[in-house]
Amino acid sequence: MNVKRTFGTVLTILGIIGLIYAGYGYTQKDPATRQLIVYGIIGIIFFFSGIGLVKNTKDEA
Fold it and tell me: Which residues cross the membrane (predicted)?
């Protein structure tokens, strides 16, 4: 089992959840705008780092 690939998948899923939460809060006109911006930025960082880990990790049998 490849730990890097698993960790990359977890990071990608957390990033997607963060982006969805930020988007939902934005559409509901949540007054905590600064908090939503932080969730969005962290979601983007997690998403792209997870995708990078999954993409750059080679499968070894």
Answer: 6-24, 36-54
